[in-house]
Give the backbone structure.
Amino acid sequence: MTPFETSRSDTGEASPRTAGQPDSVHFEFARANDFILLTKDPDDFEELHSRNPNHPGILAVYQDNDPTRDMKDQDIVRAISNIEAAGIELRGGFHVLNKWRFKKHEQDSTLRPDPG
């Protein structure tokens, strides 16, 4: 089972216990349940990561509030697929998905993120 495979009951979606709670509560919930956290609020979670890098991993999406540049759901899925194919260790890391949204034919076979 890869880090991205999970049963439907273990998706880690906001639950009544975490809905509307501060980011620190979501971070601790993900840590306690060994969930990889996906966020479109990367600044706060990057700070939480720097204070406690002992977590299953954080996947961050930066948004410009510009629909022509912001990542769509299919871009996020492609970026996760690219990270998985590259064999990148997620545990303890803060990974910016925006750098991984390329189509595979745009990159060589080493699958490394865009530097920009």
Helices lie at 23-32, 42-51, 73-86. Residues 97 and 104 are 14 Å apart (CA to CA). The two ends are 31 Å apart (CA to CA).
